[in-house]
Amino acid sequence: MSEPVRVAIIGSGPAGLSAAARAAQLGLSHVLLEKTDHLSDTIFKYQKGKHVMATPARLDLRSDCRFDEGSREAILGIWDEDAAANKVTVAYRAEVVEVTGEKGAFHIRTASGDTIVAEHIVLAIGTQGNPNWLRCPGNDLPHIIYQVDDPEDFRDRHITVVGSGDAGIENALGVAEEALENRVTILNRSKDFARAKAKNVSDLMEAGENGAIDIRTETQPKIVEPGWLTLETPTGDERIECDVIVARLGSVAPRAFVESMGIEFTGPDREAFPKLSPTFETTVPGIYVIGALAGYPLIKHCMNQGYDVVEFINGNSALTPADEKDLATIFANLPQKRPVSEWLDYLRARVRIFADVSPLQMREFMLDSKVAYYPAGEVVFEKDEPGSSLFAIADGHALVAVAPGVTVPIEQGSIFGEVGLISGRKRGATIRAGEDSIFVEVSRTAAIKLMGAVPGAKRVIERISLERQLLQIFKGGLTVDDLAPVIDGAEVIRVPAGKPVVVEGDAGDDVYVIRLGSMVVEKDIGGRSIFLRYLPAGSYFGEMAVLSGEKRNATVKAAIGSEVIKLTGAGFKAMLAARPQVREATEAAVAERAAMNSFIESRKISYASAVDLYSDTASFIMKEGLGEATDALLIDENLCVGCDNCEKACADSHEGLSRLDREAGRTFAHLHVPTSCRHCEHPHCMADCPPNVIHRGPDGEVYMEDGCIGCGNCMRNCPYGVIRMESTPPPKPGLLSWLLLGRGPGPGEPSPKWTKANMPEGKKSKKIAVKCDMCKGIAGGPACVRACPTGAAIRVSPEEFLSVARLEEDAD
Asked: Which part of the chain is the 4Fe-4S ferredoxin-type domain (predicted)?
């Protein structure tokens, strides 16, 4: 047993190394325990040549070790130099296996049998040694790896990276750059890349545009096989070649080891962090936690914490964190004057989504948020305004305008704006401060990070959004209390395209609400599957079997990749029992559906030919993704004469650039679906727009405001090829000039030759994204429909498409 030390630091990453250097500078007896034979094992395991960024740029570095952005090798070299210059005492190959004792006399036992006695312990072990594993059949196969050491090891291979955080993106870029023969795919289960740095996302998109990486969003692994990987995509399962899977799914705290010391966590979730005081002290006096284990993964944050924690241990209680001045600025304009620490505690205590957030996490989230005072009656945002941030009510309450002169309150501690956060839609209602209030505006990026890092916050946001969605669907005077039996047992289920949620003939006692996507309903009649109806997001199904007690009388399957909310039958019945008027409305809807099913059953012989049409219709909808459309352009080929008036009118209404390609696209039952925006219920193009200029209008139109920077993300994210990057052509002479004098290119989109010849000398218009906006703001509606001389062009929703298809069959 060695001589006791004032402080023992476990882990030599950026946080631990900075702590040890500060202890050495202060003359404190110390030891830095590292289980490997080198410093900073996490950085050491970065892929060779990786460029390490020093973010956030606004944060000052407070450490006795240097750090600036640079290559992995350069940074490790500098830290070795600084450790030696600061005379840091390092014990290599000293893996800690047990900690006992108490403040002033902790006993630390290593795997080699040595024991270190320390007055204080600083845990800086990080989480990288405890990665999240791939969760699907085949996840134990040897070609699945969880880090990339050297991109040179990957040549002429099919490589799939699972995970779209910084680590996953950097690995994908590294192996893609190493050899052009590599075929690299990266999977992201969501639409955007909220957990990654903007620079990494930009580099990834550029690599995708250049063909170096296949970027697959809303996609996840389903089955791993030797040499193959089956993907669950928005349009169904897909099997791709795959020699190596790089799983970068994040990591969690080594909870068993930490709890063995008596340290408590913020909650039972696997992703929870230890409970910490503002000075990083745990629930065990004398043991401190810093770095990624504290919820701060950024290197600069970690190094500042290492410096600060040793100062606190040495008695410097007056030291303020490095981000104090930035946070003080955020709170400066509030009526009450409180220190930053008090404001943070105030918000955590009064806002439900912050209840499980640690003090350290709270500091990080607030740096990406705004806090503002709103006097009574002041508008927070207007209906139909663009916006995707989330608001939390710290003091006072908000009023939602649900009808002229009618408002509904949202109480202190709750949130609003979650619809814009989840769906990207414009604000659905005008919201004002109901009294003098303090609201926290959390940016979309920060909110998504919050939901990912703090399971308790995610549960609160999802519960509130479920409550409000169900209140909107069922209406009838329901209250949040009425919904409690339903919400308590609710479960959100992801359903890939084509997969049945309920199957005809099965027993079932659950009701489903479509949260995202859409469904088709089919019934077996005479041995054939007949299409009954289309169900968009916001619809519900399954209630017929619940109320009747009989078996499922139809099959409901996902038209596209969807999410449904599963409600237990018992909870659903309890909700209906609370409000008789809701039950009456529901039973009336059930009776109407049953009558329609009976009618179709009775006509099954005369409907024999229609059965095939309906079945084919449902198949076409799912295959072409029309299930997520809110508005699609159709052309009846029996009426179309090929005049191209639709394209010309579109171009003349939009600065000379047509938003549709009449000849492109697929045809079904005489109905042609040209290449034109479908205005999806949850638009793919909105997923990653850096200037945030793509929005959804109140009538469902997806349009672009001025301000496009030409990044092309929307074009790449659109699965239907309806967005293109184009330069605005020069103005054309008027129609009369063309008719009488032959000037200009005539109606429609000018040819590239004319555009080039008439572009002002020295001027080159930058390319921006162009797409159909349903002629937003133009009197009379879509120009393509108005210009069609035969009535062949129509715009319809998916359910209207089905009606038109039926008419076509009847006409035949």
From this structure: 631-663, 699-728, 766-799
